[in-house]
Amino acid sequence: MKEFYKQLLENNKEWVEKSLALDPNYFADLAKGQTPPLLWIGCSDSRVPANEIIGAKPGEVFVHRNIANMVVHSDMNMLSVLDYAVNVLKVKHVIVCGHYGCGGVKAAMGNMSVGIIDNWIRHIKDEYRLHDKYLNSIEDETERFNAFVEINAKEQVYNLAKTSIVQSAWKNGQELMLHGWVYGLNSGFVTDLNVNIASNDELDDVYQLSNL
């Protein structure tokens, strides 16, 4: 266990040395501030690293991660990240990226209790209930699982669009587009789910806030 920890520190030193060898001002420039064009909302899964997937450098992606890449309207952590990204950093894109093989989505499809996360997963179960006719019509279990991963990512994009933070930005004429992706663990490729929202016109009237 100690050797693993020591190796982490050694890896950091090597990374610093390599970065400085390429650019002596690398860290000095990073320390001046950040102006990332993108907010990434992804899963906490260790196999889904935001920067590496899209070939981004440090400073180019503002990141929020949680179990199953959820956008829950009462989650102050997520809302704080979103508010800072939109209103301070002025990001132009927000990507919700799910991934095939997501353990959180898989758990939501079953009835096994896995601890306190049961309360978080319940939000995903609510989505299954909304799409149960379609999902239950898919006989192959793997295909049904993959379909639900995609549905979950799409629903989170719409959840983003429903927030007062995003709607206020749109009303003020701010350039902001929301996207839904799914990452393939076994391929490395992302799938664009073709849910790209740049205004609240695609939302039901009940979610459109008119007095911002």
TrEMBL record:
Its cofactor is Zn(2+). InterPro entries: Carbonic_anhydrase, Carbonic_anhydrase_CS, Carbonic_anhydrase_sf. It comes from the Bacteria. Pfam families: Pro_CA. It is an enzyme of class 4 (lyase). The keyword Lyase applies. Its EC number is 4.2.1.1. Keywords: Lyase, Metal-binding, Zinc. CDD domains: beta_CA_cladeA (cd00883). It catalyses: hydrogencarbonate + H(+) = CO2 + H2O. Belongs to the beta-class carbonic anhydrase family. This is carbonic anhydrase. It comes from Flavobacterium azizsancarii. The lineage of its organism: Bacteria, Pseudomonadati, Bacteroidota, Flavobacteriia, Flavobacteriales.
